[in-house]
Amino acid sequence: MSYEDAVVENDDAISAEKSDNQFVTFSVEGELFAAPMAPVQEIIRVPELARVPLAPASLLGLSNLRGRVLPIVNLRRIFGLPDIANTDSTRALVINLGTPMGFVVDRVASVIAVDEETIESVAGISSSIDTDLLTGVVKNADGEMVMILDFGRLVAGEFASAVAGSKGAGGAGVEQAMHNADEAEEEASDELQLVSFTVDGQEYAAEIASVQEIVQVPARTVLVPNMPGHVLGLMTLRERLLPLVSLRVMLGLPRMTVDETQRIVVLGLAGGQTVGVVADSVDEVLRIPHNEVERMPSLLSKSGELEEVSSVCRLDGGKRLVSVLDTARMFDNAALKSVLAQAARPESKVSDSEEQDNEDLDSIEDDEQVVVFRLGEEEFGVPIAAVHEIVRVPEKLTHVPKAPHFVEGVINLRGAVLPVIDQRRRLGLADLERNDRQRIMVYAFNNTRTGFIVDAVTEVLKIPKNAIERTPSLSGEQQRILGRIANLENQKRMIMLLDPMALLSDTEVAKISAIE
Which of 325, 341, 358 is the last residue of a domain? Predict the structure, then answer.
């Protein structure tokens, strides 16, 4: 459901001019309540929501209201009432309590004017809810009792576990994660870091330094006349035109129709140019010791048949081969240079009016590069600098006796023991049966590497920093682990940014490091 569907235009309940003695009335489970009109900003239909792990059960999720992150709370759950399906009458009252919050009610009734002297005490009234949440009662024109709800007290009680001092949540941990990743990078200077992808069942890879983003296939591309078969056309990415090429065709493999299951690997080339390479799927982020990487024999390279491949990685004792592409050589041809030049022309850029809301997109310094993954229907992201590797989940994890209860098992990652934790369980989500889309994201906790299983890794994105904000403080644990959110209004997406260093306590890291 889009925002346009969610907002109630010209609703009778908010059409009257606000005054101090006006209240909006609404019902929950057949009982009438009222809220002062002054802090009521809007009344909307219940929008699409991003579910937030580790938040109180009363929080239905977060929505995007005209570029603003809006928490949506279920009053039924706060009152201890059973959930019911939304109906045509279900609404959310958007109330400003220092920060706007939406409260779902069964039905909005009307706006009433109340003289202060007619407000009665709640003492002795019979109600299904805690009377401590009420400031008084009044009677409407029909003589029905209407309870005035204290939303400030309600929120303070429901979200009391939110850490008051969480102002810097989600920042220090991310910096620590990046610092740990930098240390790991220094220690692993004898390794080659790659992004691997599959084309026609074969594994290929590009050095991660040349990979700028990994994005989904767009709904529309623009064809370029008189181009060779491997040039698929142009797409719009971040308000710029990006040439698309088919890796299948470039490698002499059977052509396949481009669809939403494939991914586009955005590579940076010399001169600041970029090109999108269409792959069947993006599989892993790998760190390969240089002694497992062999240069392509010069005889094969010079023959022209394998000139795109610079080296081959021998993994799993030589049972698995990954061809590393020489991106500079691959795209050093006149046809593609023509397309790149066309995409780089000033007239290929979007107009100033289209760019107005995203004026900082062009500055790399104003972007944060994140790996996006899914847990259920929700999207999460972590800074790419904090991700040590991304690998497949093996058919079976080895269970270690006396291992901490939160460790699913261990795997052998190129001779090293890697403890593995289920990210779903860590965030209090339901278990998911193992499948081939799942991946293990490896983070470095000081010198201890630990893997977390996620449902799927979908893309690598550059997110403008002005699209990232603090999430509302909903619980202490949530604010620590999920302290930031990327609100991509134009794409109608919200990506919860996870702080990997907050996933484990120092005690838990010590227990994991003891696993041999």
Answer: 358
Tokens read off for 133:
């949440």
pLDDT of residue 176: 52
With respect to residue 55, please indicate whether it lies within any of the assigned structural domains: yes
282 CB-near residues (< 8 Å, 6+ apart): 195, 196, 197, 214, 263, 265, 457, 459
The model's pTM:
0.77
* CA–CA dist 205, 198 (Å, integer): 8
Asked if 65 and 107 sit in the same domain, the reply is yes
- What is the sign of the dihedral through the CA atoms of 298, 299, 304 and 307? negative
Contact partners, residue 473, CB within 8 Å, separation at least 6? 159, 162, 163, 164, 166, 169, 479
Which tokens sit at 152?
Answer: 């400030």
Give the pLDDT confidence score for residue 334 in this predicted structure. Answer: 63
Residues 199 and 300 in one domain: yes
Q: Is 271 found in the same domain as 132?
A: no
- The verdict on residue 317 lying in a domain is yes
pLDDT tens for 221-275 read: 877 676 777 888 888 887 788 888 888 888 888 888 888 888 999 998 877 788 9
CB 61 within 8 A of CB 6: no
How many separate domains does the chain show?
3
CA 386 – CA 429 distance, rounded (Å): 23
Question: CA quadruple 245, 249, 253, 256: dihedral positive or negative?
Answer: positive
- Same domain for 281 and 132, yes or no, is no
pLDDT of residue 8: 47
379 and 336 housed in the same domain: no
Torsions phi, psi for 22 (to 5 deg): -100, 140
User: What tokens does 335 get?
Assistant: 């046809």
Helical H segments across 34-163, by residue range:
75-78, 151-158
- Those residues of the chain that have pLDDT short of 70 are 1-20, 123-130, 140-141, 160-189, 224, 226, 298-306, 333-365, 516
Whether residues 137 and 272 fall in one domain: no
Q: Give the end-to-end CA distance of the chain in Å, rounded to a whole number.
A: 50
195 and 318 co-located in one domain: yes
Same domain as 390, residue 371 = yes
Pairing of strands 91-96, 493-497: unpaired
Dihedral over alpha carbons 339, 345, 350, 352 (to 10 degrees): 170
CB contact at 8 A, 320 and 203: yes
Q: Which range of residues forms the domain containing residue 85? A: 3-160
Residues contacting residue 73 through CB under 8 Å, at least 6 positions apart: 58, 59, 60, 101, 102, 103, 104, 155, 158
Does 181 reside within a domain? no
Residue 78 belongs to a domain with what CATH number? 2.40.50.180
